[in-house]
UniProtKB/TrEMBL annotation:
PANTHER family: PREFOLDIN SUBUNIT 4. This is Prefoldin subunit 4. Coiled coil: none annotated. Binds specifically to cytosolic chaperonin (c-CPN) and transfers target proteins to it. Binds to nascent polypeptide chain and promotes folding in an environment in which there are many competing pathways for nonnative proteins. GO terms for biological process: protein folding. Belongs to the prefoldin subunit beta family. GO terms for cellular component: cytoplasm; prefoldin complex. GO terms for molecular function: unfolded protein binding. Residues 1-33 are annotated as: Disordered. Keywords: Chaperone.
Amino acid sequence: MSTTGVMREVNPSQDKGKAKTPDEAPDVEVRKEDQEMINEFGRLNNQYLELDEDLAYLKEQLEKLDDAVTELMVGVGGPVRLSLGEAFMDVSEDYATEHCERKQEQLQAKVEELGREKGKIATRQMELKKVLYGRFGSSINLENS
C-alpha cells in the first residue's frame, strides 16, 4: 500500500438502508400471465376513461333538461315548441314538462348504471395493481399521467 492511497474496509450492513434506484432494481421476467394482466389493466383503463367522458356528457344533458324544466315552470301556460330529433312540435307546457322529466329519469338511470360500471372497473384495477406492483415494484407504472 502506498502512502497516498487509503484502503477502507466495506461493511455489507452499511448498504442495507440505501434506496435502490430503478437502474439497480432487479430484473423480473415478464411471464405470459403478467403480460395478460398488464393488457387487461390497459383495456380497463381505456374503458374507465371512456366512461368518464360518457358520464360528463350525460351530466351536461341532465343540466340542460333541468334548465328546460325550470323554464317551463316559469312559463305563461301557452304552447311551447318541443324539439324531437330534428323536428319541432307545438305542445302544451304540461306535456313538455312531463317529457323532460321522463328524459331526466332515463338519463339519471344511465348515469347510475355507468357509475356502477366505473366502480367495478376501479375495483378490478386495484386488484391488478396490487398483484403487479407486488411482482414488479417500482419498475412498472400503472398510474394515469
